[in-house]
From TrEMBL, chain A:
Organism lineage string: Eukaryota, Viridiplantae, Streptophyta, Embryophyta, Tracheophyta
Uppermost EC category: transferase
Recorded topology in the membrane: Single-pass membrane protein
Gene3D superfamilies on file: Aspartate Aminotransferase, domain 1, Type I PLP-dependent aspartate aminotransferase-like (Major domain)
Keyword Transmembrane helix belongs to the record: yes
Residue span(s) of domain Aminotransferase class I/classII large: 102-460
Compartment annotation: Endoplasmic reticulum membrane
PANTHER family: CLASS II AMINOTRANSFERASE/8-AMINO-7-OXONONANOATE SYNTHASE (PTHR13693), LD36009P (PTHR13693:SF3)
The organism of origin for this protein: Hibiscus sabdariffa (roselle)
Domain of life: Eukaryota
EC nos: 2.3.1.50
Protein name listed in UniProt: serine C-palmitoyltransferase
Keyword Lipid metabolism: yes
InterPro entries in the cross-refs: Aminotrans_II_pyridoxalP_BS (IPR001917), Aminotransferase_I/II_large (IPR004839), AON_synthase_class-II (IPR050087), PyrdxlP-dep_Trfase (IPR015424), PyrdxlP-dep_Trfase_major (IPR015421), PyrdxlP-dep_Trfase_small (IPR015422)
UniProtKB/TrEMBL annotation, chain B:
PROSITE patterns listed in its UniProt record: FBOX
Organism: Hibiscus sabdariffa
Domain F-box per the UniProt entry, residue ranges: 53-99
Keywords attached to this entry: Acyltransferase, Lipid metabolism, Pyridoxal phosphate, Sphingolipid metabolism, Transferase
Protein name: serine C-palmitoyltransferase
Amino acid sequence: MITIPYLTALSTYFSYGLLFAFGQFRDFFRKIFDWWQASNLQGYAPICLGLEDFYIRRLYLRIQDCFGRPIASAPDAWFDVVERYSNDNNKTLKRTEKISRCLNLGSYNYLGFAAADEYCTPRVIDSLNRFSASTCSTRVDGGTTTLHKELEECVANFVGKPAAVVFGMGYVTNSAILPVIIGKGGLIISDSLNHNSIVNGARGSGATIRVFQHNTPPHLEKVLREHIAEGQPRTHRPWKKIIVVVEGIYSMEGEICKLPEIVAICKKYKAYVYLDEAHSIGAVGKTGRGVCELLGVDTADVDIMMGTFTKSFGSCGGYIAGSKELIQYLKYTCPAHLYATSISPPAAQQIISSIKVILGEDGSSRGAQKLSKIRENSNFFRSELQKMGFEVLGDNDSPVMPIMLYNPAKIPAFSRECLKQNVAVVTVAFPATPLLLARARICISASHTKEDLLKALEVISQVGDMVGIKYFPAEPMKQLQHQHQQPGKDTIKSE
Amino acid sequence: MYRVPKIKVVEVLTLSPLQSFNLCNYLAEDLKNNKSRIVMSDNRDNDTLTSVDNSIGRLPDHLLIEIFIRVPVSEWAQISCVKKHWASLFLGESLWHAAIMRTFPSASQAKRWPGPIPRGLSKRRFAALYVSKHIVALDDEIDEIVGHTYLFLKEQLELSTLPPPSGILHGTIIDQFISCGKSREVAHELASQIWLAVLDNLEENWHTFLVLKRLALEEDVFLPFPYSRSIKVQWRVFEKLFLDFRDCFDHADFYDQEVCTLPVSASVALRVAMESVALNFVNATLNWVTLALDAPAARAVVFGVHISGHLFVEVLLLVVILFLLSQKSYKPPKRPLTKKEIDELCDEWVPESLIPPITEEMQSEPPVLESAAGPHAIVNGKEVVNFASANYLGLIGHEKLLDSCTSALEKYGVGSCGPRQFYGTIDVHLDCEARIANFLGTTDSILYSYGLSTMFSAIPCFCKKGDIIVVDEGVHWGIQNGLYLSRSTIVYFKHNDMESLEKTLEKITAKNQRAKKLRRYIVVEAVYQNSGQIAPLDKIIKLKEKYRFRVLLDESNSIGVLGHTGRGLTEYCRVPIEKIDIVTASLGHALATEGGFCTGSARVVDHQRLSSSGYVFSASLPPYLASAAITAIDVLEQNPDLTSKLKENIAILWKGLSDVQGLSVASNPESPIVFLQLKKSTGSTKGDLQLLEDLANRALEEESVFVVVSRRSTLDKCPLPVGIRMFVSAAHSESDLLKACISLKKVAAVVLKDHIRP
């Protein structure tokens, strides 16, 4: 739980209030000017709704330059950010030819497979030449190649489940699978901070949806007991089935799921567990097999394992792993399998190759090095940030670390100042987070060197002082304690 | 002067009964006529007196009695004054007895007389009977008891200086009736009548006033419960007091009486409501209340406030209301489940298995390709002609595409590692968006990372709860899901049927007055993936403009195919693209890459960049695929003969397949999807599917022609029939197409042999 300092909350509310008031003021004048011009709707209702539009016009556009910055290279540790300019107060941004080389703290390039890789890239290009870029067909028609077969076996083996099925997009994986396995009369209990794709999938399923407090197993138990006892709403029939949906690592919080407790509760109450490992697969665990490996949960206890290839594997698509029967059933009826173009063969090859690297099947120890590197990097960076007095969310070992900003003005300030010093960070605000809890998010990669991290820390510390987001006092005493507690950091120093 | 004949007593004594009867009648008549004389001549006229004396003076007693009872009762008192002897006759028993016998022949002579009220002698009985008949007006049967009770009550009230309380009197009356065999109900009714009769017949004197006042002051005790009619009687008491004896009141008295009246009026209201006995009585009561309350003397002043009568009623009602409000309403007690009960429920609950049991049909595995999915592919080590890939322009394996992909892979890597907002925007994405917009002639476009997600993200972006979407029933699942997620009101029209569409639009616009204020859309596919039909866009545009709907068009299977230069359905139907509000398409068909895009006005595109969930919350399209899309459009623009080649190929296949046994071509002659349908369905989708799949499998195995069946997910709501779908490509040679036609005919003849015959 994030506790906001009282004064910060007040000033944040004040800032938003001011923005809102000015926005309304400007809208008022706009209405007057619009009044002169004849309405061009001609009997149509406006295509965008007022308040949504208001947020974009009056709040988002002011800081539009902090989002969607185009890059002109692979999203590796360093990348080329294309500079943009605006002639109309940020309403439209124009690309220039100029680029600036920045340190990338924003991409989900956890294992550093985003850039061309000595092992993967040649194989990817080989398969491109063999299978072309697309099959132009769905998996059940002519879209299954030997590569797809190999990929599914490879993923099942990597994840630790009997079978797997892959899709061309992670978002579709979630939103098309949930309606297949649960429908009316079922109950989906979802973590309150689950990703939008899960929310959409749950909505599309027609099942009843309940949430439990973010990562709080006791509350999950309470919700489960309550709903099993109560049955379906109005009819009070028993539920057909209950699926508990959690994520391995929450991308906006950087927290690692309390999986052992949740699995124990689900077992006790006979609920199925759906684990979304979008951010954790490949990134955590001794051999990169995700939160199950990290927390010592038997994968047999997780009924449905979902994950994406966009992050650690540097490709695209998603997978579902589970029992043979589950996968067979999904292949028979899942719309994403039946109607969507199969995953692009080069992307499939990228996944196969990167998994081979992670498992050391390429004949080198690069995979193991990458895994230990990302762990060390993450823990080092997190502890350093905490020592500086930033309010950092998330657990140890997680490569995602949000820094709380709160005030709306600090969002662009932090982002722009960092960029000026060639550090690219991601800032997140409403609607992706609650209004009060704006934050910057840093994603650490195995491809970051120690120098990169030190530079990043220096810049962030400096900008943090300038923007005023070091909400906790820096504690030199703490530093000593941390040195003893965290061997990971010591190895960094000794390097 | 009238003379009475002299009759000797002896003669009279010897008369026959008939004669004596006549004589008596005659004498009675005489007596009646001379009555005034008798009375008046008391002292002055000895002559008259003597004459009467002479005529009937010496008659024996029984004859006298016979005579007297023939005279009206009202004159008896006067008769009794004439002679001492006559007066004693009136005091005696026999005259009254005879009178009863004559006047009330039906009166009972029973000796037994139960009950507390004495029956008394004949005189009293006569009086009682008389009262029954005349005052209480019991016409049909003369009931002695009624008269007796009347007399009793009247005596009690009139004679005694301090009459017993009404309750006791009343009780006595009721007891009397009951002991004489009346039912309780009748007894109450009679008692009430008697009370009213007695009250009406009381003399107007001071004593009566005091008695009435006393009765009025009895309030609740007056004719106590359960006697239900006491109110009526009580009101008669008040009535008499306030009307007949008004002058006897002094101020204090009047006030006392009024206070007594009030509770009665309240209880009147309540009881009447409960009993619904007599509405008219209520009216009378109300009249009375008004009359009584508005009496000028009823005004009192408390602390300077005039307390008029209705104020009392109002205060009283207020008190009643407050009392009722203060009562707690009944709520059944809540008993939450105990911990133990919940434990038991949780133990008892058995979930369904995660998936239904696997049946045989679920186990079919698709053919695995060992090469690229070009016009010729390798399946199971054998080269087959591929009609399963929507590689319409034959761009799979195109060198330029491969080159552009290779360089992109080397430069950008495979994945973009982030959503568009967070450094997932790579310059090729922006180039690709600009290229697509430029190609189609729109201002801007937006790239999605997957074809399927394009529609189901774009639709909820523009349609919310309450908006109206009119949609073709044959649209593919991606659109169906988008419609479901939008939570809008969805109305289907018949597949590709413009009359049905017009009717639907008409109905919606006419029926719904609010429709003008809602966002309204028509959603259609350019080439329907589920049937191969082409939407008549020009007609749709006319309807859209007539009814003011916006159009969402899915061009997944028409971009690069329809129109001279492959710009899709708008070019094919010669409709300017600005007329279409939102165009979506998948890049995974003709353009031989992956992903999807949405295009339209700048506003439509910009709105999606923050509101479309599939765009905002998903990693962006791998850059090499975007670069492939750019190259594919370049290739298409540089080779306009690709579309004409495709058109020719479609025509060849269409012609070749027009006479396959048991199958009919159901698609549009220009659609790149050639859709073969069973001429005669087996009756179930499952059976059809089985048959067609058998056909497709044989075609692949025996004839090396790779065709596929349109499979449906259990989530798909499309009602159209299933069939064999053949994706024609510009890269197919004429011999490929002819081979396919011959093979399909051969296989169909075998497989559908049993199906066609019976």
